[in-house]
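Holo prediction — zinc ion.
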Amino acid sequence: MILVHSASQVVTPLHVVDNGAVAAEDDKIVFVGSTSEALSSFPNAEKINASGKLVLPGFVDAHTHSIFGGDRSNEFLMRLRGATYQEIAASGGGILSTMRATRNASEQELLQTAAANLQIMLAHGTTTLEVKTGYGLSWDSESKLLNVAQQLKQVATQDIAVTFLAAHDFPPEKSRDAYVKEICHEMLPKVALEKSADFCDVFCDQGYYTNEQTSAISLRAAELGLKIKVHVDELADVNGAALAAELGAISADHLIFANNDGIKKMADAGVTAVLLPGTSIGLKSGRHAPARTMIENGVRVAVATDFNPGTCYCHSMQFVLQLSALLYKLTAEEALAAATLNGARAIGMQDQVGSLEPGKLMDCLIFDLPHYGHLFYNLGVNRLETVVKRGKIAWNKNPKLN
Ligand SMILES: [Zn+2]
């Protein structure tokens, strides 16, 4: 047994327990409540004294592109000089530049890079994440990425949900129609048979997949038993929010340009919005997803890093929390739920992770901060001290304790 006790606050995030404690047997939480009750109920547990500290559930990063080859820091510099996403893509950069580097990389190289990035995420508090394929854009290389994702599940500390995103862009070597047909008739049946992904995703936006192509791929995926996610309305309003609702997607992601009609339809259909504030600042468009309108209309809002080599090379859910409060005007409580429980809902793992509740996995973070307000107030630093994953200390700020 493990018992984290005497925390100045335990934020579950549904409620706050002052002088709180969390206890777990093996990998599952068995108690959340007061320290005095915990110490008398579990006298023999291995104890972690969190006196003066803040305890949170591990962050759930519901949208990452963590498996890729190469480096696009040069494009970020172009962006700082004023180039747009579309201009960078037209000059040979963008997703297709990562596609070339990813196709040329071995499984071992891709796995090593991804595992190193997940370790940095862990050191910032991410204990569960989603990873997407999508830089292969051919069956040979997309299946290589699925293999890497399966291996990553074995070697990484975090729990991982896998999303098949062959429809991230179009490969240069064939027609768009031919590629959509190949995804529907050749790739998706293999993914479903191998059970190598939990979700199917499509980049539905201006210049990328049309709403018709997105529907065709998503409906085929659903028929084969995969759950649907969509990247929509990132670059323009393509009515993607409404499409996500029609398709019964588990989440619609980005939504920078989502319109009110689509937002209402998402609320009715129970589609979780996954908002990616790091990407909207990376795009430098000055435009951000209408998070308050979504919340006012009853849409569940999650926030995630969108960790990727291009628009948002960001490992830190703490930075995302701060951005979501400052850019989207979420309250601290809304932002914390968005980075934990709603992230879990966006990947269908809300029964296992996302909050500190008996029966869920013992994934918790101990910060050297007295109050959850400091997570927002103390900008741009990592005050995380200890990460407990599945009941075991998985990371500590003091390298001697790792
Ligand atoms: Zn993305």
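READOUT: The chain has two domains: 2-57+356-396, 59-346.
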